[in-house]
Design goal:
This protein has 10 helices and 11 strands. With 384 residues, the chain is α+β, with helices and mostly antiparallel strands. The chain has 2 domains: 226 residues, Transferase(Phosphotransferase), domain 1; 62 residues, no CATH class. Strand 4 and strand 5 form a beta hairpin. The longest helix is centred in the middle third of the chain and has 23 residues. InterPro entries: Kinase-like_dom_sf, Prot_kinase_dom, Protein_kinase_ATP_BS, Ser/Thr_kinase_AS, SRPK.
């Protein structure tokens, strides 16, 4: 699963694999999601919903057809409550600046095409229309069974991400604050059959006959049974692989030849102007910069740290830092590792050590933190 351009932990799929989860039904109430259906029209009939391709805590995303320009687009429908609407307007502000400064659409950043408000039973929803993109880097990593995609391919992807970051940082003064594999999308799908253009998909222009979601009624219990069945099959496959059985053959890395690796940075729901930063904590913890962890302020370098973590993950198939809880410690493994590592760096700025000392005092309890070389919080503290 991956991210498109939504807030709050986005789940996005271009359709290359079945999703294990959906947003459920609780969010479909006043102030919540809009219950869109295939064939529904938006913006005076210009955009026609085709199928849902993603969801997040703030919104759902649909593949839509732009009847004015005869093209497929991504339609993000925000929840209608005031806070969600304000968040969407902030995202529109940033994406509008991105589009204005990139008339040729060559800066490797998601392009906003339109935005409007849509009134529905649950309230008025802010909607964003962007170009339709393909699979995320996370899906690419998983498609290759977490084997790493090869340095030449990593370089090609990194080139696009660096172009995008340079544009955001140097020309616009925007910090993304949540760069991760889910938030970098390939310009096309891994499987051509799942791309509405390359597959020759005929757009839906009228609402199909069926239930309110445009298809066969599937109960929540049926969805849960299917999800459990998929998980059971996955566990059986993993056991076969661990025992060297038939499944082991399936764990070889896949051929990535023919897959376009051009990509774009997406998801500006948490982005900010460099001179108007968020007060709270930023970044997903596996990609969180050390200055953010210890609360010493942040800048463009936070995005660069996340970018480096992504590059490592692409090359190896593994997380560079994999947070995990340990008994007796409330902070994640990433924080422990970074705090310890920073005390061992000879060129770490002195002011950073001061922040580290404060962070250690506030975050950690006394006692071992599970450092590999047997050191504890007291040992690391003495070095600060």
């Amino acid at each position: 699963m991956a991210s498109l351009f939504g807030n709050g932990g986005y789940i996005y799929s271009s359709g290359s694999e079945g999703e294990d989860e959906d947003e459920g039904t609780e969010g479909y109430r006043k102030g919540g999601y809009h219950a869109a259906r295939p064939g529904d029209r938006f913006a005076g009939g210009r955009f026609v919903a085709q199928r849902k391709i993603g969801w997040g805590n703030f919104s759902t995303v649909w593949l839509a057809y732009d009847t004015l320009h005869s093209r497929f687009v991504a339609l993000k429908i925000q929840k209608s409550a005031r806070d969600y609407a304000h968040a969407a307007l902030h995202e529109i502000e940033l994406l509008s600046a991105v589009a204005k400064g990139d008339p040729t659409n060559s800066k490797c950043v998601l392009r906003l095409l339109d935005h409007f408000k849509h009134a529905g039973p649950n309230g008025q929803h802010v909607c964003l229309v962007t170009e339709f993109l393909g699979d995320s880097l996370l899906r690419l990593i998983r498609y290759n069974r977490n084997k790493g995609i090869g340095l030449s391919r990593v370089k090609e992807i990194c080139r696009s991400v660096m172009v995008g970051l340079d544009y955001l940082h140097s020309e616009l003064g925007i910090i993304h604050t949540d760069l991760k594999p889910e938030n970098v999308l390939l310009e096309s799908t891994i499987n051509p059959a799942k791309d509405p253009v390359r597959s020759g998909f005929t757009p839906i222009l009228d609402r199909p006959v069926g239930n309110q979601y445009g298809g066969t009624v599937i109960s929540f219990s049926e969805k849960m049974l299917k999800m459990r069945a998929r998980r059971a099959v996955a566990k059986i496959s993993q056991r076969r692989v661990s025992l060297g059985g038939v499944g082991a053959e399936l764990e070889k890395e896949r051929c990535l030849d023919g897959i376009s690796l051009k990509c774009k940075i997406v998801d500006f729901g948490n982005a900010c102007w460099a001179d108007q930063q968020h007060a709270g904590e930023i970044q997903t913890r596996q990609y969180r910069a050390p200055e953010v962890i210890i609360g010493s302020g942040y800048s463009y370098s936070a995005d660069i740290w996340s970018f480096a973590c992504i590059a490592f993950e692409l090359a190896t198939g593994d997380l560079l830092f994999a947070p995990m809880n340990r008994q007796g410690c409330s902070e994640d493994e990433t924080a422990r590792y970074l705090v310890y590592s920073s005390t061992k760096l000879s060129n770490t700025p002195l002011q950073l050590f001061g922040h580290l000392k404060i962070a250690l005092t506030q975050i950690y309890i006394s006692g071992p933190l599970g450092f590999d070389d047997g050191n504890s919080w007291e040992d690391a503290s003495e070095d600060c």
